[in-house]
Here is the input.
Amino acid sequence: MAKIDVSEFIESNYKRNDFSHLHWTGSFQDYVNIVSEHPKVARNAFQRIHDMIFTFGIEKYSEYKKEITRYHFFSDPFEKGKDAIFGIDVHLMKLVNFFKSAAAGYGTEKRVLLLHGPVGSAKSSIARLMKKGLEHYSKTDDGALYTFEWVDEEESEILGGAKLFSSPMHEDPLKLVPTEVRAEFLTELNKGRADGERKIDIKGELNPACRYIFEQYMLKYDGDWNVMIKNHVRIKRLILSEKDRIGIGTFQPKDEKNQDSTELTGDINYRKIAKYGSDSDPRAFNFDGEFNIANRGIVEFIEMLKLDVAFLYDLLGASQEQSIKPKKFAQTHIDEVILGHTNEPEFRKLQNNEFMEALRDRTVKIDVPYITRLDQEVKIYQKDFNADKIPHVHIAPHTLEMGSLWAILTRMEEPKKSDLTKLQKLKLYNGKTLPGYSEDNVKELRKEAVREGLEGISPRYIQDKISNALVKNAHHGCLNPFMVFNELESGLKHHALINNTEMYDKYKEMLVVSRQEYEDIVKNDVQKAISVDENAIQTLCANYIDNVKAYIQKEKVRNKYSNRLEESDERFMRSIEEKIDIPESRKDDFRREIMNYIGALAIEGKQFDYRKNERLHRALELKLFEDQKDTIKLTTIISNVVDKATQEKIEVVKTRLIKNFAYCEICATDALNYVASIFAKGDSAKS
Ligand SMILES: Nc1ncnc2c1ncn2[C@@H]1O[C@H](COP(=O)(O)OP(=O)(O)OP(=O)(O)O)[C@@H](O)[C@H]1O
Ligand SMILES: [Mg+2]
Here is the structure.
């Protein structure tokens, strides 16, 4: 263990400068100077979140010919990707559009933002990310914001004998500008700002407590605002923090009968009533409901539709009017994003309720579905299950992928085209090409499946079962897909959300499909390790394409060695096609499809890559395997009597699995044994 000199470490790592920077205080005039120079400090909550999202930059890519924007903000730059959101960029774009429109004041700032989706679809993760983002942003120069506190050196009665009284809703100091002169003040402040530029605005009056104090001091100084501000107002930097209940609130409905508005809009402080003599003295009121404390930032409503309906109307009012009504006090302006989330079943339960109309009208609903792209789903599990976090157990190749594969299969709708299996559809979604399916076809497939991603197995179930499998098999030193499949299967019986046998059977059936797919994959790995270097396939592929081209165009092929023109080699082409069961009668179609595909790619200026054409890729591998497999007698592995020469070859294969395919000693041995046992059963090398 290394020794650490604490004071030296802190001195060089912890920036004291930052501390004083973040604890800056100043006069009202100082603040106005800051605002003139950096009008951003006076942004409203929607504008601030909007800008925060954009500070992390974007990246564009295209999917199904549509341009998609990925906002790096959603990769969680705050905690190294811990809450990164994958695979639902299209939906995140809608979320960002909400903020775009709200920041510009087009009306969505008066709506509740409702994230809607099945259990475990990242709704809370998105909310967490936004809160975390705000905390972080408020500490940067770019995201700085300010509030004020009342100061009274004489500890007069006005502050109840205290020296300090902070704005309980951490309001923008500009709200201290008397309403009568605000319009002119703003005109001055906004002078010189171009037409398209955001203008500074001051909305709403001070909260009741500050309003009261304001008036009392005005009385004291005979209406001299300048003296009041100079003597009693101090501006300070505002750091948003969920833990400190500043600018970030969360509300979770508990018991349906036990909902109380004070949790949202604050409560009478009974101890202070004695002091101030009246329960309508705003100083005897704690403005500490979630709506109050979330001012300037965001308030999250977990399971929003579980709220009592009367309450929900309050909430919808709060967004529509951007004001709340604390008990016994006037409407109080709020500046905050109201973010709710809800599950599918809850949403549906309310669908027949007339209240739904009102709700639909006042919310912007953003769907947060499950991921349906395999390579994206895998990333969820890689976050938690990787060598860094689990150093003592190796995770065999394809393990997380198989959990993801099954999860997505359970989320998929049966393709309407009968010749397509769910597994094939999954692969199409994942960017593989199948002959006969263009990008447009895949887009169609997605379109026809309206409920896709709204049901099925949640990532949380997969996470839990992978954890279980890890714990149970820690002694083995390596977690493989079989272990995960077993956990996934045994958990199904007790799964709370599987409530009919039809669903149960469907999920089981998808497990069979997944296991079969794994068998193919692991066989393929072993075959590759035995036979292949990529160059050999490449050559084989080029050779095949040359022959197909000649065949289709009724031309001759130039023999690379003799440089003479020859007939296309029918036996050679068939030896490849037979590997994937293409009958004689279909061979022309197959060859034509490939040529068309290559032609279409050429038009787009793209090169043909056999790896993208799954069937051809497989056929080529199998052909190569066949050409080479006799050099190693795989089935002898399980016969216990392995001669030295074979043993050496097996070691070579194992080493290749480890070096090229990320296997470890344990799973490489497992894989070889498994594949050997398949071959021993008389299975051919075909899939
Ligand atoms: N698209 C996704 N990208 C990254 N992680 C995801 C995604 N979908 C789900 N997850 C992961 O699944 C788990 C559950 O997510 P989360 O708690 O955010 O879901 P939720 O929608 O709030 O669920 P619930 O409706 O049960 O409250 C988390 O670990 C989260 O990281
Ligand atoms: Mg949640």
